[in-house]
Amino acid sequence: MDLLLGVAAVASVPLTLAGFTWYAVRARRTGSGQSLMAPFEEIWDPVAHRTNVEVHAQARRTPQAPSPGDPPAV
Length: 74
Description:
Organism: Lentzea kristufekii
Protein name: Secreted protein
Structural class: mainly alpha
Shape: rod-shaped
Number of strands: 0
Strand content: under 5%
Mean pLDDT: 82
Distance between the termini: 72 Å
Helix content: over 70%
Largest sheet: none
Order of helices and strands: HHH
């Protein structure tokens, strides 16, 4: 019984890391999962996290309408 418990404990570490890796790759590929991965990104790379927050904020903003007299966009 103790051997089985030890094997389960040792095997859980790589399985957990593999699960996090799979989710991170999937989230980056599809562009989803920001809310789940954001705390980890903020802990290990706060500058990238702040940059990512600003990029998402700018993407949500609607573009301004062109001023009268501006040439048409091509």
